[in-house]
Design brief:
Number of strands: 5
Strand order of the largest sheet: 4-3-2-1-5
Number of domains: 1
Radius of gyration: 15 Å
Distance between the termini: 35 Å
Order of helices and strands: EEEEEH
Helix content: 10-25%
Strand content: 35-45%
Shape: globular
Structural class: mainly beta
Length: 87
């Protein structure tokens, strides 16, 4: 992805086209996936879906901040920072 875009999610199961910026992913138990993010108005959104009903289209959307968010690389960056801080 280029420097002007970041990962977003498009949902079409609510009867309308709803897109939001993904800030973080998570899970709860063995069968729920959580998407945390913000909508186009900057309001927080959280989507919980059972793995058997998971249907999220990942799309490239215009970045919100100065630097585009890269979902999935946050953990690696934190691990690298921790290694640098460890004597």
């Amino acid at each position: 992805m280029d420097q002007d875009h970041e990962v977003g999610a498009r949902l079409v199961t609510f009867g309308v086209d709803f897109t939001f910026h993904i800030e973080d992913l998570g899970y709860w138990g063995p069968d729920l996936v959580m998407f945390h993010g913000v909508n186009d108005q900057g309001k927080k959104v959280e989507l919980l879906q059972h793995v058997s009903q998971l249907s999220v289209l990942l799309v490239a959307i215009d970045k919100v901040g100065e630097k585009p968010r890269r979902v999935g690389f946050k953990l690696m960056e934190q691990l690298e920072e921790d290694e640098e801080d460890t004597p």
